[in-house]
Amino acid sequence: MAELTIHVPDELAQRLEPLRERLPELLQRLVETVPPRIPLPNQISSVTSPTDAPIAYTEALDFLITRPTPPTPQEITTFKVSAEAQERLRTLLDKNREGTLTEAEATELDLYEQLEHLMILLKAKAYDLIG
């Protein structure tokens, strides 16, 4: 088995500590759920198509990782993507109902569905923490 060393902020390291034994499993799940078309952070500069990183995906990532501290449970429960992202999703859903989605749009819609599932799980966990 290979050994991997990563550098994370101290606060994140503290939050990951209880999961230490499960990290390989959790990383495996993450890798399996991220479609290959999604650019990894070190590939963002090479994105040339809007379907490579849908706006809602980018907004959710920004919400979760570009803050000086992790979002509070209350912030997680109230998070919503922008009106622009919601309109894009409505467009994709309409095209899906009409049977006119392109392959790239179908991939994008799949990504939105995965993002929705993740956000439902995050919000459920946040509601549990709020009490």
Tertiary shape: globular
H-E string:
HHHHHH
- Structural class category: mainly alpha
Largest sheet data: none
Give the helices and strands, then pairings.
Layout lengths: L9 H7 L6 H11 L21 H11 L7 H6 L4 H16 L4 H28 L1
Can you give a write-up of this model?
There is one protein chain. This protein is globular. It is built from six helices and no strands. The protein has 131 residues and is mainly α. The model is unreliable at 38-51 (pLDDT under 50).
How would you briefly describe this protein structure?
Helix content is 60%, strand content 0%.
Describe this protein with a few key phrases.
131 residues; mainly alpha
